[in-house]
């Protein structure tokens, strides 16, 4: 694992640049070797549009087919699944949301702790007369598995067809998270009975579920805890938006209807390719609102006759796919697979040490904590290869002033950047999760129409959001140490005053009276 940062393994640029990267939920880091090999492939070969039949086009089509199979192999997909290439995971979710047969008497059920791309599907549901039903988030993110399981029968009447978003579940029996992943499991219920399909995935409660985790908290989704049988009409579309790299979901063990993936969250490159991994019988139920180049066989013009393409994946791939990037997808999955067995033990050790050490740091002038950890803390320590953790490797925190008030996130981000520390602040496109961690669920519920983020912060008198520290494929002890050194610098009054002055000089602004207090007391 340590050799990943060696010059010959392609991630030594981190140390050359003096940068510590702890934003793997935002995007993974590509190894130099992946880019170098792909650049050589492009230089040696001629690739053309896959909609043609020339030799360059045939090579592109072969690369796409190889990448499609590599994705199916990586997720251990049994027969009956196909891969639709998209721009990213959000694009994959949109394909499902815009085409799912919502209707009156149906519902879209999701966890409040979910990515905005998952929340956005509610517009498709509402536009067709479906209800939108939220399962509340817990104080540490995710939702309570037992509560979700009890509430679903009331939302899913017999012989109704659903697609349920079950994003994160917090439970002592939930083992682990998909580090860097937003599990967009979405369940919809259409108001007509479906044909009798096979049972919906019943994922074991153990960490082998490989279920993804919240972008702001450590909470993992547990498919088994609230997955009603598919024969009851429930449809399950997990979203692997940041499928980071410590484990792979097995579709053979957990045959969900659809899975949304962004490859740059897994191995950093390419950034313009995602996928919808879906059952063909599920795709057949979708009703696309339009057709485009590449999705059709025959179009009558003028007229109304349209015959869709014979291959199911082609019916959903609008226009020309990113044929220059597929060889990198195949190579990236191979690269990632080599490290999968070893990542949980490394990331578990790093995460435990990071949290324990952060909570021990105190301000020099008041002996009060510098950091408050908001996300779920890991309980299990992974000690052997192949064992899985009970949380992911993302830690959501607040940095505190000596008075105990929250230091502005923009100040922390500015100071961290100046220190060569790449982290993330804000709500991470996950407003429900952030509101749960910050205790703002009632405020979120009372938001007026046309509310703005700036107005919300002004009303609260402080900045909103958290500081997110996420570890991943190339993380090592040096990165954790630099995070801790930064926190220790914030703990020292003289260092904090200097960082505050630099932030103000660069245009930093405090928000409300609370922010003014931070500036005076630092």
Structure characterization notes:
- It contains 18 helices and 19 strands.
- It has helices at residues 13-17, 32-44, 55-74, 89-99, 116-119, 121-127, 145-155, 264-267, 280-285, 326-339, 343-360, 409-418, 431-438, 441-445, 453-460, 477-491, 493-505, 512-521, and strands at residues 20-21, 81-86, 107-111, 131-135, 143-144, 161-164, 169-170, 187-190, 234-236, 239-240, 258-262, 274-279, 296-299, 306-308, 371-373, 394-399, 421-422, 424-426, 466-470.
- A four-stranded mixed sheet has the order 2-12-11-10, with helices on both faces. Strands 4-3-6-9 form a four-stranded parallel sheet. A four-stranded antiparallel sheet has the order 15-16-19-18, sandwiched between helices.
- The model is unreliable at 157-161, 166-212, 220-232, 241-245 and 513-517 (pLDDT under 50).
Number of strands: 19
Structural class: alpha/beta
Estimate the helix proportion, in percent. 25-40%
Shape: globular
Number of helices: 18
Distance between the termini: 40 Å
Biggest sheet overview: 4 strands, mixed
Task: Describe the structure using short key phrases.
522 residues, alpha/beta, four-stranded mixed beta sheet, four-stranded parallel beta sheet, 19 strands, globular
List the topology elements.
Blueprint: H1 13-17, E1 20-21, H2 32-44, H3 55-74, E2 81-86, H4 89-99, E3 107-111, H5 116-119, H6 121-127, E4 131-135, E5 143-144, H7 145-155, E6 161-164, E7 169-170, E8 187-190, E9 234-236, E10 239-240, E11 258-262, H8 264-267, E12 274-279, H9 280-285, E13 296-299, E14 306-308, H10 326-339, H11 343-360, E15 371-373, E16 394-399, H12 409-418, E17 421-422, E18 424-426, H13 431-438, H14 441-445, H15 453-460, E19 466-470, H16 477-491, H17 493-505, H18 512-521
């Amino acid at each position: 694992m340590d050799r990943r940062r060696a010059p010959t393994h392609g991630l030594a640029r981190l140390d050359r640049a003096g940068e510590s990267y702890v934003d793997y939920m935002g995007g993974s880091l590509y190894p130099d070797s992946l880019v170098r090999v792909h650049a050589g492939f492009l230089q040696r070969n001629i690739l053309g549009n896959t909609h043609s039949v020339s030799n360059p086009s045939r090579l592109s089509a072969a690369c796409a087919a190889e990448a499609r199979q590599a994705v199916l192999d990586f997720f251990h997909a049994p027969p009956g699944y196909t891969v639709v290439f998209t721009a990213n995971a959000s694009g994959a979710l949109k394909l499902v949301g815009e085409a799912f047969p919502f209707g009156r008497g149906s519902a879209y059920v999701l966890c409040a702790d979910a990515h905005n791309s998952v929340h956005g599907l509610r517009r498709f549901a509402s536009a067709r007369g479906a209800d939108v039903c939220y399962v509340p988030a817990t104080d540490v993110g995710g939702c309570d598995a037992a509560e979700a399981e009890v509430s679903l029968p009331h939302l899913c009447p017999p012989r109704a067809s659903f697609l349920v978003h079950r994003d994160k579940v917090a439970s002592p029996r939930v083992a682990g998270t998909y580090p860097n992943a937003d599990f967009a499991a979405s369940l919809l219920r259409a108001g007509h009975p479906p044909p009798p399909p096979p049972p919906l995935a019943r994922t074991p409660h153990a960490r082998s579920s490989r279920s993804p985790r919240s972008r702001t908290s450590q909470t993992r989704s547990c498919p088994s805890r609230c997955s009603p049988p598919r024969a009851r009409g429930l449809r399950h579309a997990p979203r692997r938006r940041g499928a980071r790299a410590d484990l792979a979901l097995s579709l053979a063990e957990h045959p969900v209807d659809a899975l949304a993936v962004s490859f740059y969250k897994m191995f950093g490159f390419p950034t313009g390719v995602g996928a919808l991994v879906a059952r063909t019988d599920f795709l057949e139920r979708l009703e696309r609102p339009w057709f485009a180049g590449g999705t059709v066989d025959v179009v009558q013009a003028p007229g109304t006759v349209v015959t869709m393409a014979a291959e199911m994946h082609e019916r959903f791939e609008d226009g020309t796919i990113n044929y220059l990037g597929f060889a990198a997808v195949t190579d990236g999955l191979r690269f990632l697979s080599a490290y999968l067995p070893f990542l949980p033990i490394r990331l578990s050790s790093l995460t435990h040490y990071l949290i324990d050490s952060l909570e021990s740091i105190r301000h020099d002038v008041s002996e009060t904590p510098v950091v408050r950890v908001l996300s779920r803390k890991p309980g299990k320590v992974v000690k052997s290869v192949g064992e899985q953790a009970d949380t992911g490797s993302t830690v959501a925190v607040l940095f505190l002033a000596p008075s105990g008030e929250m230091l502005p996130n923009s100040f922390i981000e500015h100071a961290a950047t100046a220190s060569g520390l790449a982290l993330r602040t804000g709500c991470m496109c996950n407003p429900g999760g952030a509101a749960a961690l910050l205790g703002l669920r009632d405020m979120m519920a009372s938001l007026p129409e046309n509310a703005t983020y700036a107005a919300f912060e002004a009303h609260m008198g402080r900045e909103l959001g958290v500081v997110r520290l996420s570890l991943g494929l190339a993380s090592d002890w040096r990165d954790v140490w630099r995070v801790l050194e930064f926190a220790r610098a914030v703990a020292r009054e003289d260092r904090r005053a200097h960082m505050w002055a630099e932030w103000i000089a660069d245009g930093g602004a405090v928000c409300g009276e609370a922010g003014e207090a931070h500036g005076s007391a630092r």
